[in-house]
C-alpha cells in the first residue's frame, strides 16, 4: 500500500468544521447541490422489493475498506481518497448507509506495516483532519464508526504485535480529542492461522485493550481450535501472568475463540459461505463461544464480495446478483435465525456485511466511486451485473 503525505481538509477550528459537515449532511436530506455522476447503467431501478423496509429498519453494520476495489483512486491510496472526501466520497457513503439502514461502519484507517512510522508511532491517526471530517459526516447521520486496522499484510506475521499500542493510543487520543464523535471500538483484523502465532495475537489484544474498547475479526477455525489441542504452544495460565483477567476464564474457556471474545467487545465471526446452514452453524458456534466466557454481544459477518479469486462457495454475491428481488427477504430470514439462536444463550447479535464497495456493486452494478444516483432504489437490475 503506497504512502500518501497529502492530508486535505487541513485542521481548522472544530466549530467551522461542524458547519461544513452540517452543510454536507443537509445535502443528504434532500436540499442538495451534490452532483451524481451520470453513469449509463442500462438498468431498471427497483424501489421497494419485498421486506426491504424491514431490512432497512434492522440495525446492521458495514465493513468499509474503501469505495472501490482498486488499490488507488486519483493516484492516492483508495482508503485515503475516501477519507479526503474531495468528491463527496464520504458523503456518498453516508447516504448509502442511511438508505440501507446501516447503523455502524468499520472504517479502515491504516495498518502497522504501512502507517506506523508516519502516524501511529507519533500518537496520531493517519490523515487526522480528513478522518475527523469523515467521522463527523457519519456521526451526523447517526452512524457509529469503529476504526478498522491490521498489523501486516501477511496474516501470520505477528512480529510487530507490540506496536499495536501505538495504534490504540492514537485511536484513544483521537476519541478523547473529539468526544462528540460517535466512535466505537478499535477493530483489529489480523487473522493468523498458525498456532505458533496465537500467543502473540492474544498479547496484542491485551495491549490494545488497555487504551480503549477493542473488537476483532474471528476466523471460523478459531471456533474449532480447542485449547487442549494447542496446549504445547499456548498456555492460558502463562498468559494470565501478563493479562491477569484471563485467570477468570481458566475453568470455562474451551476454544481459542473463547479467549478472544473474553478480551473484546462485539467481535465478529467471519461466517463467509453461500450456504444458509453453514452460515447459521458458524453463527451458533460463535454465540456458544461468547456465552461460555460471559460475553453477551457478538456480531456475524457475511460476505458479499467477489474479488481476489474468492471461491463462489464463500460468498453470497452470486446468489444476490441472480436473485436481487429476494435478497432482502433472505437477509431477514438469516437475521431471524440468528436471533433465535442467540437469544436462547442470552446473547444479542448484529449482522455485519462485507464490504461497502463490493456490496454496493452487487446491488447497483457499478462501484460507489462512480456515484450513480441511487435515490429511491433498493437495487438495480442490470444486464451485466459483474
Please give the CATH class: Alpha Beta
3D shape: globular
Class from secondary-structure proportions: alpha/beta
The strand line-up of the biggest sheet is 2-5-6-7-8-9-10-11
Find the CATH topology. Answer: TIM Barrel
List its salient traits.
single chain; 386 residues; alpha/beta; TIM Barrel; eight-stranded parallel beta barrel; two-stranded antiparallel sheet; 15 helices; globular; disordered N terminus; membrane; transmembrane helix; transmembrane
Report on this structure.
The strands form 3 sheets. This protein has an 8-stranded parallel beta barrel with strand order 2-5-6-7-8-9-10-11, surrounded by 8 helices. The chain has a two-stranded antiparallel ribbon with strand order 1-12. Helix 7 packs parallel to helix 8, helix 8 packs parallel to helix 11 and helix 11 (256-263) crosses helix 12. The protein is built from 15 helices and 12 strands. 40% of the residues lie in helices and 16% in strands. The chain has 386 residues and is an alpha/beta fold. Residues 1-36 have low confidence and may be disordered. It has helices at 14-28, 52-57, 78-84, 89-100, 112-115, 128-140, 164-177, 198-209, 220-224, 236-240, 256-263, 276-292, 317-322, 324-343, 356-364; strands at residues 43-46, 60-64, 72-73, 76-77, 102-111, 144-150, 183-188, 214-218, 268-270, 297-303, 348-354, 379-382. It has a single domain (14-382), classed as Glycosidases (TIM Barrel, Alpha-Beta Barrel), CATH 3.20.20.
Amino acid at each position: 500500500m503506497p504512502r500518501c503525505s497529502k492530508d486535505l481538509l487541513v485542521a481548522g477550528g472544530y466549530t467551522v468544521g461542524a458547519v461544513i459537515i452540517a452543510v454536507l449532511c443537509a445535502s443528504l436530506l434532500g436540499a442538495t447541490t451534490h452532483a451524481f455522476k451520470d453513469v449509463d447503467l442500462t438498468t431498471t431501478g427497483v424501489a421497494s422489493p419485498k421486506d426491504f423496509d424491514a431490512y432497512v429498519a434492522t440495525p446492521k453494520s458495514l465493513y468499509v475498506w474503501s469505495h472501490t476495489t482498486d488499490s488507488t483512486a486519483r493516484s492516492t491510496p483508495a482508503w485515503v481518497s475516501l477519507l479526503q472526501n474531495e468528491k463527496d466520497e464520504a458523503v456518498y457513503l453516508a447516504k448509502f448507509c442511511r438508505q440501507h439502514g446501516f447503523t455502524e461502519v468499520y472504517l479502515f484507517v491504516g495498518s502497522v506495516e504501512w502507517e506506523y512510522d508516519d502516524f501511529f508511532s507519533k500518537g496520531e491517526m493517519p490523515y487526522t483532519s480528513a478522518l475527523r471530517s469523515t467521522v463527523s459526516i457519519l456521526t451526523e447521520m447517526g452512524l457509529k464508526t469503529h476504526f478498522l486496522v491490521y498489523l501486516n499484510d501477511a496474516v501470520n506475521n505477528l512480529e510487530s504485535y507490540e506496536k499495536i499500542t501505538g495504534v490504540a493510543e492514537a485511536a484513544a487520543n483521537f476519541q478523547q480529542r473529539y468526544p462528540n464523535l460517535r466512535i466505537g471500538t478499535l477493530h483489529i483484523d489480523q487473522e493468523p492461522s498458525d498456532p505458533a502465532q496465537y500467543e502473540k495475537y492474544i498479547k496484542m489484544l491485551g495491549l490494545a485493550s488497555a487504551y480503549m474498547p477493542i473488537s476483532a475479526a474471528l476466523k471460523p477455525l478459531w471456533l474449532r481450535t480447542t485449547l487442549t489441542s494447542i496446549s504445547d504452544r499456548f498456555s492460558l495460565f502463562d498468559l494470565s501472568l501478563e493479562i491477569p483477567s484471563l485467570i477468570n476464564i481458566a475453568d470455562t474457556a474451551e476454544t481459542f475463540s473463547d479467549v478472544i471474545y473474553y478480551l473484546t467487545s462485539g467481535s465478529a465471526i467471519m461466517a463467509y459461505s453461500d450456504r444458509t446452514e453453514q452460515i447459521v452453524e458458524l453463527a451458533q458456534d460463535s454465540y456458544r463461544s461468547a456465552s461460555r466466557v460471559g460475553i453477551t454481544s457478538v456480531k456475524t459477518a457475511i460476505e458479499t464480495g467477489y474479488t481476489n479469486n474468492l471461491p463462489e462457495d464463500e460468498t453470497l454475491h452470486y446468489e444476490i446478483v441472480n436473485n436481487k428481488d429476494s435478497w432482502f427477504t433472505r437477509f431477514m430470514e438469516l437475521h431471524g435465525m440468528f436471533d433465535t439462536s442467540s437469544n436462547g444463550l442470552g446473547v444479542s447479535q448484529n449482522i455485519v456485511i462485507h464490504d461497502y464497495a463490493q456490496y454496493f456493486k452487487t446491488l447497483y452494478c457499478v462501484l460507489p466511486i462512480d456515484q450513480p444516483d441511487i435515490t429511491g432504489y433498493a437495487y438495480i437490475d442490470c444486464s451485466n451485473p459483474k
